[in-house]
Amino acid sequence: MAMSGTDPSRMREMNQLSVLWALRGTPPSTVTELSGRTGLSRPAADVLVQQLVTDGWAEVEEPGASSTVGRPARRYRFRATAGHVLGIDIGVHKILVMLCDLEGNLVQSLRRPADPQAGPDARLASVDQTIDDVLHKAGMAPADIWAVTIGVTGPVDENGRTIVSTPLPGWREADPIAHLRPRFTCPIRVENDCKLAAVAERWKGVAQDADDIVYLLAGLRTGAGLIIDGTLRRGHGGVAGEIGALKAVRWLNAPAHLSACPGVPSGAKPGDAAAWVFQAAREGDSAAKTAVQRYIRDLAVGVAALVLTLDPQIVVYGGGFSRSADLVLDPLRRELAKHCLRVPELRASTLSDESVALGALRLALDQVDTTLLGSRLAAPTAPQFS
Amino acid sequence: MAMSGTDPSRMREMNQLSVLWALRGTPPSTVTELSGRTGLSRPAADVLVQQLVTDGWAEVEEPGASSTVGRPARRYRFRATAGHVLGIDIGVHKILVMLCDLEGNLVQSLRRPADPQAGPDARLASVDQTIDDVLHKAGMAPADIWAVTIGVTGPVDENGRTIVSTPLPGWREADPIAHLRPRFTCPIRVENDCKLAAVAERWKGVAQDADDIVYLLAGLRTGAGLIIDGTLRRGHGGVAGEIGALKAVRWLNAPAHLSACPGVPSGAKPGDAAAWVFQAAREGDSAAKTAVQRYIRDLAVGVAALVLTLDPQIVVYGGGFSRSADLVLDPLRRELAKHCLRVPELRASTLSDESVALGALRLALDQVDTTLLGSRLAAPTAPQFS
DNA sequence: GGACTTAGTAAACTACGTAGCAATATCTAG
DNA sequence: CTAGATATTGCTACGTAGTTTACTAAGTCC
């Protein structure tokens, strides 16, 4: 709560930021609209937005055919293409790189299959290649990128290194930030995939209306991401949400109920096996129904621990298994009712497997917002370092 | 992140607030010091602080014998006695009312024993009496009170009513805010005792340096209060931290290990029994040592669930049993190491059983800060309503 | 008495708000 | 179909508020 004194030039800076924020996320606006949205007078909004245009933050749209009475108004819009950010999902089976502008409009997206056995060097080389392709197709250079966020499985420390365990072979030796640092001058951040998916769900998914969210990444591995008071929570050491590590919470075994179900086609990959069980349960196979029930019962204990701890508004069921949410949501809700004092709303994710990369984009955009548009308005160029 | 436009008069208001915040929590300051602390020029700080004096927010201290070279400076100080707040702990066995000024200096404190069997009406009548006594001894009227916060056991909803269960007989029927509303015009708030104790620990206890805290109220009942990113978290429905409700977390049974210990003097009250067991364990009694060990083992599961979920910086061991922290902390740390990915710092509370009332004071002060000293500077009088 | 610090005051600068006027379009009446 | 009324934008001039800078006066210690 430490406040600091203000002088006229700072006031102007704040008002300029105010106009900039009023410009963002809206259709091209007239000066009068900006004046109304910021609470500033029309002349003030006018000079401020013109300054934004000369600075490169905004663009003018000369009046065309007007639809209403009165002189047609010149319109201004946020120059979202002044900068771009990258969101990267480094998964076991795929690498996904997304590129969007400052308003979050997707510009380019590229997916490459990855060898599950590949070591960190090979995997990072593949990431490099995918980034190159995306930048090339978008006609951009690394210097045009203002922020990069990378999602990986497993807990991540503040330096972007994976700490405990991860299904990516040898990944604990990898240092993705050091690897990318020579190519990018902008901030680079690495974050856990569950946490990024949670962020994506609040940005473009089913949790846009909530500030307290527990996100479940349900698949062959189970994980969680927490958003509290609208902010992604990493915890003091970056391992918030890792309730699955508790022995009483059998998240490691929960998906095993599915692959152990009798009747699964022999030789099926674990992911396919789970899909088969869900489908069989949907068609009435009693063994499959039992397996799903056991899976949900084990899953519910961990969810209940998260819910009892945080009392969130929504629990989002995401990840690979969210395709089978129709089978899971109602029984899970019933299980939660047994454990919890107050059962939160339960929703199924509608984002596909792009959620991690989407969340990475959002975090990169947040980085830009705080660095360039936070309390000081900087020039519209790539910020340096991290 | 919605910013709003500013004009010169608002700028002055902000600067006045800035000076006020620079004045608080420091010894009486000269204008030059204020100027340095706020970043404002000396003349600006001068007129602003003089305005604060005429408004009643600050007091002048005419220069006495100066200790340094140069003309002795007039000093200004925050008028902490402009308003006061009440912090009330309604417990099973006691009622504690504390009164402090706007800087948190304790003015008056009064404790009354309470009948554990007393119903809500009798208990609230006793609260009324204690409030009256405190106000009388301090020479104040209810109108001098700017905020009231009450702590009770059990989960509390946003209207101050106890939701689920509570050891206070019949308390679910009680409506403390409605009861006190006729006497006070200021905001009244009711909060769970664990949450308040957590706040107290960060204010005056062992967790002043941390922003992510799990507070453990360990006694005959076990509870938790969470502070995340420096803010007390209630959860969406006010039941955050109630991990003890999970069946896999046997917090309800954990203290029973102590009272069930063989050798406990028959007829001892549960609290005395626990104290006896701790003392016996300290003296080497093996049965007592086993009982303590079992207690800690059960306690640790719930703590681990909280820690794995939130990854806090510190866990504070508070409540009635914190007197025996010497026996608990090390074994608890070892248990946590078995469960957790990262073991946070474990500290024993040093606040006595005043922690709930202290936390209530702090929350009431926070209320005053946001209402009167938040974004607008109001006149120094009691705020209205809640 | 000199050095150092604070207190108080006047002038200059900056930024916003209001008022007013010209420009540009649509609507309506004859 | 044309001309006036109406409405909205674009722009400039002026007044107000607040801060900074600069300067003078005042008080204490060495």
What does this structure look like?
The structure is a homodimer of 386-residue chains. Chain A has helices spanning 8-23, 31-38, 42-55, 120-138, 176-180, 193-204, 256-259, 270-282, 286-310, 325-339, 355-372, and strands spanning 58-61, 75-78, 84-90, 94-101, 106-113, 145-152, 188-192, 213-218, 222-228, 231-232, 314-318, 345-348. Chain A is an alpha/beta fold and 386 residues long. Chain A has three domains: 8-78, Arc Repressor Mutant, subunit A (Orthogonal Bundle), CATH 1.10.10; 82-197 and 355-371, 2-Layer Sandwich (Nucleotidyltransferase, domain 5), CATH 3.30.420.40; 207-350, Nucleotidyltransferase, domain 5 (2-Layer Sandwich), CATH 3.30.420.40. Chain A is globular. In chain A, 47% of the residues are buried. The model of chain A has no long low-confidence stretch (mean pLDDT 92). At the A-B interface, helix 1 and helix 9 of A face helix 1 and helix 9 of B. Chain A binds a DNA duplex (30 and 30 nucleotides) through helix 1 and helix 3.
